[in-house]
Fold each of these.
Amino acid sequence: MGRLCIIALWSLSIYLGLSATSVSAQLRQNYYAGVCPNVESIVRNAVTQKFQQTFVTVPGTLRLFFHDCFVQGCDASVIIQSTSSNQAEKDHPDNLSLAGDGFDTVIKAKAAVDAVPSCRNKVSCADILAMATRDVVALSGGPSYAVELGRLDGLSSTAASVNGKLPQPTFNLNQLNALFAAHGLNQADMIALSGAHTVGFSHCSKFSNRIYNFSRTSSVDPTLNRNYASQLQAMCPTNVDPRIAVNMDPNTPRTFDNVYFKNLQSGQGLFTSDQVLFTDGRSRPTVNAWASDSAAFNRAFVAAMTKLGRVGVKTGSNGNIRRDCAVFN
């Protein structure tokens, strides 16, 4: 009996090891070479067209990828629409601020791919989102990089699954590190991915506590640059329209660059979770290094995005290729 137990446990450990390996082995560059060899250029052309219509394509797509991967893995489950019987991920309060242009980018790229007969229903929405994310980074001045492909689309999307899975604007370094570590991402990965705040915008409600009622002793967060705090108060008066949005990077908001880290050095991080990367001595050296070396930041960002893209990948019977990215087959 004892020997059978040992054999069973040994077999289970072999199986778990193989299944973990198979997930990473499934992802590879040129995954679609045999069925849809031009998929990357098809997606890039569709994304470029969308980008030319609106810059919101960039932060919208970037945030969509991040919010997707952190909840049930990179499986395009965030794109699923709610039904009368199921409230999907996209309708969780933490996802309501996702820009419609991000969803639209993936849907248009999917349509372009499926317009090619040999590619039709052969490329997953999850992979299209991963490619589109790489493309918007490059289109806005950031690094281009090889994307690993081979993800399947998820079979589940519930608002409840989002609870506690996404970083909040008020997080400190310990909370940020813990959340990212749960997905195999270290502190450097977290800081690099935070650098995506070099593009995009936020609604006033997400940071109003820092400019109006920070603490009993100070209405304004003392780590905020005073001039920047005054600018934010002017853009976000107390009874501001909740639809009003402010650029995350006040200096180069339409360029993917390392100015985000320079902003942190001068107290111009919009969220507490941004500024803490500089105020906390454990992360400050990384911020300083990337503020002075854009190539080093770009390398770190590519490495972190590649690791992020491997989170929770669906394989085999755990996923499929959706015909419509917003609806389960």
Amino acid sequence: MASLSDSSRQSLLPSFLYTSPNSFALDRLLNANNPAFGVSRSTTLESPAASSSPSIKSRTFMIPAPNEPGKRIEMYSPQFYAACTFGGILSCGLTHMTVTPLDLVKCNMQIDPGKYKSISSGFGVLLKEQGFRGFFRGWVPTLIGYSAQGACKFGFYEFFKKYYSDLAGPEYFAKYKTLIYLAGSASAEVIADVALCPFEAVKVRVQTQPGFARGMSDGFPKFIKSEGAAGLYKGIVPLWGRQIPYTMMKFASFETIVEMIYKYGIPTPKDQCSKSLQLGVSFAGGYVAGVFCAIVSHPADNLVSFLNNAKGATVGDAVKKLGLWGLFTRGLPLRIVMIGTLTGAQWGIYDAFKVFVGLPTTGGVAPAAGTQPAKA
């Protein structure tokens, strides 16, 4: 019979992540000196294409299921994708909700720069007019929308990265891996934005039009009554224009930056580094990637805010009112701070969850094709 502590640990994880629901001591998995964790320390699986090569028989990465050493979560199995999807929910939903005050000021600076002239004055105006509670207006659609987006973004990225690398094969994956990262992240984001768009539309309207609604519960039906159901997707094209370049930069630059850190900045091979160090690398790589993301996607972000705030507005109206320079620069410093922190935290949370369930962190130097992983 499982102990009470075993049962409490199991309750932290969704049961669908494992092939068996029996409980086990997670600390045994997370103990780097424990033989049960030896496989993850000795196996680096950053080349999905290499894992499917018939010449590499021991490439498949597995972790033990609770109290049953023979039961495993296999890399690129349904349980693996379920874990990545759940990690994406945690990483995107929680981080976007946390930075709601910054997002609120940023959106209002984009819509009404005459009133919200700077970051500090923007916070001052909000505090004076709406009080402290006003800083978190729109947090519910933010949490729901970005949780849905994160689930699709990370889950489908892992799927498409594996799918495209299998099509390319180990040799072409090693040669064109950046293109595969770009294609995989773009494909995932197309799906993720369909999930996000309705909630983003309501969020922007709630945040930029005081008195429109208190939040999600009354804002959603009000928006549909005003714009119609189709109005929830009025901003889908600008959203794709913002999020697809953002996500392509986010994933491809992260993978490249992390690989460079392990190759040039850390003398110890990744699979010999502590998990805390690996998570630190994930956060640092994510933060730098986030700065690039903010710059690339900012013009489209201004368009999304403008279109969702003004009824019947078009892209032409936005360009005419904001101007080309304003389209690229209005609210950019704040967005760099926000997106850099956000992206670093997202990669940190996502990889922390992967480590928590026994999976390897994302990114790093891929093993040469045809090499056998060291045995535990």
Amino acid sequence: MARRRRGAAGRDEEFTFVSPVVKYLLFVFNFIFWIISLVMVSIGVYARMMKHAETALACLSVDPAIMLMVVGVLMFIITFCGCVGSLRENICLLQTFCVCLTLIFILQLAAGILGFIFSDKARNKVTEVINRAIVHYRDDIDLQNLIDFGQREFDCCGGITYTDWSQNMYFSCKDDNPSRERCSVPFSCCIVSKDKVVINTMCGQGMQQLEYAEAGNHIHTNGCIDKLVNWIHSNLFLLGGIALGLAIPQLVGILLSQILINQIKDQIELQNYNQKHRSDPWS
């Protein structure tokens, strides 16, 4: 009888509420994003070192390299808590990981709702950023490539209209502007025909001096703001899918961490129970 009781007690001690599947699935989940965070920080540091100092990209309100480093460091800390917390079955680290993910998810949701409600203010902010980027167009090759890419992809020119390029010191139409690009627009504004063998890279020369209709025969006269808004309206399902793709990993991390926390708590209660009832009157 005593042997049977001792055998049962041994089986109780071997039993655990903590599921290895949940534990190591959460670890792998965090480890993948931990590696991604290291890559993000490395790219941010490399980009910052290549720039050496403040550049024209500062006109974008936030330096992309610094933003990448900040996001990477935060992501590194959060996923580190998830990795160590899942392996060590540490409730404190797991709760920190769960709370951080929940706060990030709530902030993202709030930002999306506020951006939808205050769309006019968001549009004005985007317009300011684009205008500042136009001013610094020739100051940084990365910014220049970014603007050219946007104008080619959306078939647009400037922020509101093609004459916005007069804000740039090289393309300004002021009489005292000695630049050879006076009253011109970048080549990325031009309407390029696929039938032409030889492309005229100077097609934007003097376009700001022409009337809207006449300029429209050679360049895209509509601004990028309206084109961007129209693109967003016509690709709401795509943007919704991207938002859902960002939200699902966060929700999965929150769910797995909460399940593991509850399992660890149940295991602690079991251990406390076994500790209290360790003395067996039949032994």
